[in-house]
Amino acid sequence: SQQGEEDPQALSIQEGENATMNCSYKTSINNLQWYRQNSGRGLVHLILIRSNEREKHSGRLRVTLDTSKKSSSLLITASRAADTASYFCAQITGNQFYFGTGTSLTVIP
Amino acid sequence: DTGVSQDPRHKITKRGQNVTFRCDPISEHNRLYWYRQTLGQGPEFLTYFQNEAQLEKSRLLSDRFSAERPKGSFSTLEIQRTEQGDSAMYLCASSWGQGEEDTQYFGPGTRLTVL
Questions:
Q1: Does A85 touch chain B (CB under 8 A)?
Q2: Any chain B CB within 8 A of the CB of A31?
């Protein structure tokens, strides 16, 4: 399977704290994307990072990419209760998207 | 709302019955994807269309599954002779088809329960 893996599988933090989740993937990539999924809903695209980029920011999100280790991390700063969701990394190989197993984030108010 | 829509949102059926799901993509998007997602897992690719052409199918898509996208607009996913193992969330997504920088827009999903 080309499915990546997120770590940790579940994360629980207090509102205002930072949340970090990691993604490992198996094959070479041109870019990696992060998506968010609220319970029982579809996924929403958060951010894309290209293979020649090491870090990218979008609002309270910071994504890093280490292609030598085939890993990426997503940092959410100053978390809010509304950030409670599952977060997935996704890689595109050819015309297929491969999603990781996800990190379930709970932000406690 | 011009997002991706799916119908129905929930479907309960008995084993052996046929079910059909519909997806209406964002109108300007030429690519449409179907995924299956089980609890605690990420979405697994099933198939995708470029306009009306079905270009790729996962080996997960057994011969009981068929998908169509007539006229390159909405798509249907049919499961024949449903099995309990088919119980899952079926997600549809659409995109512009921008190669490896493509971004997908997902519908809310159809949750299938096979009794």
A1: no
A2: yes
Give per-residue pLDDT as tens, A21-75: 999 988 888 889 999 999 888 899 999 999 999 999 999 999 999 999 999 999 9
Residues with Cβ within 8 Å of B59's Cβ and at least 6 positions away in sequence, in order, are: none
Distance CA A77, CA A37 (A): 18
**With b meaning 16 or more CB within 10 Å and e meaning fewer, what string describes A54-90?**
eeeeeeebbbbbeeeebbbbbebeebeeebbbbbbbb
Question: Token digits for A108?
Answer: 């406690």
Give φ, ψ of A82 to 5 degrees: -70, -10
